[in-house]
Amino acid sequence: MSLLELDGVHAYYGDSHILEGVDLSVEDGEVVALVGRNGVGKTTTLRSILQLTPPREGEIRFREASLVGLETHEVAQQGVGWIPEDRRIFSQLTVEENLRAAIPGSDGVSDGLALAFDSFPILEERRRQEAGTLSGGQQQMLAIARGLVGENDLLLVDEPSEGLAPQIVADVAEALSEASEDATMLLVEQNLPLALDLADRFYIVDNGRVVDTGDADAVSADDERFRRYLSA
Ligand SMILES: Nc1ncnc2c1ncn2[C@@H]1O[C@H](COP(=O)(O)OP(=O)(O)OP(=O)(O)O)[C@@H](O)[C@H]1O
Q1: Closest residue (by CA) to atom 24 of ligand 1?
Q2: Are 26 and 4 in contact, with CB atoms under 8 Å apart?
Q3: Any idea where the ABC transporter domain is (predicted)?
Q4: Is 163 in the pocket of ligand 1 (CB under 6 A)?
Q5: Is the confidence at residue 227, as pLDDT, over 80?
Q6: Which domain holds residue 104?
């Protein structure tokens, strides 16, 4: 049985029918990427799992139990973490306070901080700095680090490379790649080379549906099949 399963998920914003029957699954330990053009429903798929945009039809199961109808904080309590596209951090708190707030319980604090600082050494240098005064790239690192220290069984990661300078993308990619060795992730990423680097498996999303799937080798070997869904 898969860790996460979406079965015929339909989701709407008001009257707009955005997800038109999404089927996908994520196994324990996998990194799975959702790729596809802008506006096809990738973020909405993550939002539907989190019950931020609850599905009107279909089923979402995590460890065989339905998430549909739960509150978002209850989904989080089940061990589903989220690194949103808009880099949600507490801008008035310091870097370290942001990390501490993301670490569950008090026993794991020093391990959690060590993991975050190991992944992003710049965060250790800036640990006493107010997060709102960090550069955009550093804020993204902090948002990712907050996700990594959360001891989640599944991490939903939305466009981690968006809007970042190439050097920062490389740092983010490296940290995610290290983290992925012992984490399970469902990742939305438009940057295909980065997605290829990180993911074991892909789903191509188009018009609110999964239209193709393959492992990383299949994607590289058969680029055209995927690229036609990725170009604008
Ligand atoms: N809060 C909202 N209210 C109404 N429509 C929305 C809302 N959020 C997104 N949409 C629309 O839903 C569709 C799917 O958006 P979604 O963010 O899931 O796409 P995406 O595949 O993640 O692409 P992107 O990379 O642009 O975020 C788009 O047409 C978008 O305009």
Answers
A1: 38
A2: yes
A3: 4-232
A4: no
A5: no
A6: 91-151
